[in-house]
Amino acid sequence: MEIKNCAAIVTGGASGMGAATATLLSSHGVKVALLDTNKEAAEKCARTICGQAIYCDVTDANQVEDAIKEAEKYHGTARICINCAGIVHSRRMVNQQGPMPLDEFRKVIEINLIGTFNVMRIASACMIPLSTIGTSEERGIIINTASIAAFEGQIGQTAYSASKGGIAALTLPAARELAPFGIRVMTIAPGLVDTPMFAKIPPAARASLAAHVPFPKRLAYPEEYAMLVLHIIENPMLNGEIIRLDGALRMQAK
After folding, report:
1. How far apart are CA 124 and CA 126, in angstroms?
2. Quick check: is 74 catalytic?
3. Catalytic choice (55, 74, 160, 221)
4. Using alpha carbons only, how large is the chain's radius of gyration in Å?
5. Per-domain residue ranges for the chain?
6. For 157-184, how does the pLDDT look when each residue is reduced to its tens digit (9 = 90+)?
């Protein structure tokens, strides 16, 4: 899809993979709206790319609808939707304190899985009335973010893996449903990415994690996620698929 002058929304755009994606898309002429609950950080990123920062809790149906409408006022209807919003979670289903509180599991599913679906459904409904563009006659594309934990969840990742596995499972049926409208759906499943979450980990622990990656032996850069997003958008035959971005890493049980 030709992306210059297209509008895009990036959830979780205030930092990490979302911010890197927004920055790269902007450098290619895309008009980007950053949706995030961290409005201050989103505004800081938006200023550097001449984008728009909008406060949005992806789990709230009304907030997502309002945020997408607000983004449309500035840039027009988004043909590109990148879902990076999400949280990490690590706790055994049963530990010394007892069973995991059900609300804790529910929160992870609500943000990571339901939040992604919430944005997908509203963004795609806005794309459907658009005219087609290019020789492939596309109307838009949605790219979601899963994780390799969707396939090799470790001990303590029951909630997180379930949420990311749900995103992976959404990919093909959503792509099939939206295919008649010229809207593609793809998912990226990152491995270990050097996001702000990893900044809190001691250097020795970071080195240990990196050593498990076959090649290159390091954490992935957020910019590498963004590079893959850009390629997916520009390659019209990529549809209904999950792409791992992990340096051939296969997670062990713990």
Report:
1. 5
2. no
3. 160
4. 18
5. 7-193+221-244
6. 999 999 999 999 999 999 999 999 999 9
